[in-house]
Amino acid sequence: MYLYSLKTVTPRRQIVNKQTDTLIYDRLKEYFGFTSFKGNQLDVIRNVLDGRDTFVLMPTGGGKSLCYQLPALMMEGVAIVISPLIALMKNQVDSMRAFSETDGVAHFLNSSLNKSAIQQVREDVLAGKTKLLYFAPESLTKEDNVSFLRKIKISFFAIDEAHCISEWGHDFRPEYRRIRPIINDIGSAPIIALTATATPKVQMDIQKNLGMAEAAVFRSSFNRPNLYYEIRPKVDESREIIRFIKQREGKSGIIYCLSRKKVEELAELLQANGIKAHAYHAGLDASTRARNQDDFLHENVDVIVATIAFGMGIDKPDVRYVIHYDIPKSLEGYYQETGRAGRDGGEGHCITFYSYKDIQKLEKFMQGKPIAEQEIGKLLLLETVSYAESSVCRRKTLLHYFGETYPLDDCGACDNCLNPRPKVDATADMQLVLETLQAIGDKFKIDYLESVLIGKATTLVKSYRHHKIEQFGAGTQRGERYWGAVIRQGLILGLIDKNIENYGLLAVNDKGLAYIDKPFAVTVTLDHDYNADGDDDDGPVAMGKGGGTADEELFAMLKDLRKKVASKHGLPPFVVFQDPSLEDMSVHYPVTLEEMQSISGVGAGKAKKFGQPFIELIARYVEEKEIVRPQDMVVRGVANKSANKVYIIQGIDRQMDFADIAHAKNLDFDELLVEIEAIINSGTRLNISYYLDEVMDADKAEEIYLYFKEDANTGSIEEAIHELGSDFTEEEIRLVRIKFICEQGN
After folding, report:
1. Residue 638 — pLDDT band, cuts 50, 70, 90?
2. β 106-109/54-57 pair status
């Protein structure tokens, strides 16, 4: 094996000469079989060979691993690679051994090895066979490992997934903070830190904590042009996922969920519907995880369902889709996880199912953590919400978040660009935003600025006396959602700065001040509004998000019919059928009551009570348009999953306390209400009056009931909260809505 000894490294002007580059290319071909580099790889490798600290920002699939693997093979000594995931270590070690004639070229030392395996690794290292030695940060800190590493020549330290060192990163690991002191204890050697996701704030944090402020920084574009980004409302998501996968039979995909429980349930549901899928999370034993990972890599299964928190660490180039069943906790996490699609440059479809309820759950998870950690988490969540609800080009928004400018307004490869919403002129409103921000100063976040604009005199606003400034309430004709869109457009256009050191604080910059005096035309598109039922606020504009094949003409006809049927029964339209049910009808064209029962949100009760005029209309439409109906996909449930439904119905019939029902089925109260809502939305009638009489004031319950009967245009909980006021809790409103739908619609 050829070595490039640090002892003979010449000045940089000679390292980059033609002779040295020829050597690098020769070794690239010899070791990896490649003849060319991607992006900044060559410059990074030159810098590492030169013995300099190196910081690499390169998107997933950009070839980060080669940046330390090739120098490790060329240099004298052993490269110490620090990685957070056992799965990632195993995958990379297997990959390196495939390129080499000897298995000893790469090893890992972690908790998965027994004593004899550890001894074999150390013998290979001391014999000079090993060029890359992988550690988890926890293993690196063990005294016996530190003592062993002091005995060997280390070519350099490679810190993979370096974003884990930052509290502002999406996967903060406190043990990463100890890496620099341990390196100092072992002995001085150059460092290469690598990450696929880092905002300017995270980059600064990484360099500071690793003591490499003077490192050469190599930043590649974060743009992944082969990836298609899409956000869908979280309505009947399991059916949508099954339909999507069946249309791509034989292709590899990853599905991320927030909880282990959901991972297990979804994997089981996919299996029941003939999809080759495995679960993958930290709760599985090591042998099961390894087997499931290998089955995915070897294409024995098509789909891996995994927890977001645990991560995957699987370097599989031909993943064709990444689905987020739950919204991630940060845009960095979202970018890295979606980046596992299409690493070979082929197609990569990235779908995320979004409901604001998921955001509220994530906020609940933060309770009990240190205040500073909660604040950081909430700010990162706010960025995720903005991305999900924004109608700006997804690619433009993502790249801006990572400090990169995307020059086009239409990427042609995201849902917002392919289904653009109407633009409105915001030239004067942008002026107002900038003038208001100039007046209040640079100590406030986006939500505070929105409050001042719409005239919301919060305690904080009053404490700064900003309810007295000229701009207070100047934007009352618009809502917070609109002003959020204008502010984000100001950030993207470079008129507003977001403070890196004090994350989230806004300030007008010089370009923004110039805009106030000489404005240019600015337009914005209104944000999506995914309400409690998953509908977008503009109705038919949301067509296609549910499955991409909805018949817009039929959907409009069904909405008109729903209005007539509702009027005949003296009910609000949403009680008859909700929008997702109408959308599903416009996809599947049910023409019998039996077929109607398979529609999302329609059970036997609703089909019998309201379904006849709808199937008659659909049958006429199908005949007139000569439509060949797609064969209905019947999603097979997992048998034991119906136990919750039966138990809940029986429990309510026996007038059990809701807390007792929830405890018996291991549900929290919110999950119980979701289950009950699913039961009553499919047409089953439940009598929960006994429970309401115990927990609610009769006058409050009656006022909510009358709101849904006389004033509500939709079943939206958010609208109800807004109309009824702060005296009513979300829980109270949901309970009364359940009673109302049962009595009036089921």
Report:
1. low
2. unpaired
Neighbour-count burial of 11, counting CB atoms closer than 10 A to its CB (0-12 exposed, 13-18 middle, 19+ buried):
exposed
C-beta atoms surrounding 149 within 10 Å:
23
Q: Can you tell me the distance from the alpha carbon of 489 to that of 268, in angstroms, rounded to the nearest whole number?
A: 43
Closest CA to 319 of 292, 335, 291, 338: 338
CA dist list (Å): 224 to 227, 228, 343, 406, 556: 6, 9, 9, 11, 37
Q: Which residues of 600-629 are buried (b: 16+ CB within 10 A; e: fewer)?
A: bbbbebbbeebbeebbebbeebbeeeeeee
Q: Of the candidates 595, 604, 559, which has an alpha carbon nearest to the alpha carbon of residue 577?
A: 559
- Residue 562: CB partners within 8 Å, gap ≥ 6? 573, 576, 577, 582
pLDDT at 629 over 50: yes
pLDDT at 40 over 50: yes
Angle CA 482–488–490, to nearest 5: 105
DSSP at 622: H
Question: Quick one: which of 133, 111, 112 has its CA closest to 122?
Answer: 133
Q: List 178's β-bridge partners, or say none.
A: none
* Model pLDDT, residue 156: 95
Q: Is 23 helix (H, G, I), strand (E, B) or coil?
A: helix
C-beta of residue 252 within 8 angstroms of C-beta of residue 359: no
* Structural domains of the chain ordered from first start: 6-219 (3.40.50.300), 227-386 (3.40.50.300), 423-525 (1.10.10.10), 539-625 (1.10.150.80), 639-745 (1.10.10.1390)
Q: How confident is the model at residue 501 (pLDDT cuts 50, 70, 90)?
A: low
Determine the Cα–Cα distance for residues 169 and 377; give it in Å rounded to an integer: 10
Beta strands in 556-711 (DSSP E): none
Average pLDDT over the chain reads 83
Cα–Cα distances (Å) from 353 to 103, 344, 389, 598, in that order, read 43, 25, 12, 21
What pLDDT, on a 0 to 100 scale, did the predictor assign at position 631? 44
**114: buried, middle or exposed (CB in 10 Å: 19+, 13-18, 0-12)?**
exposed
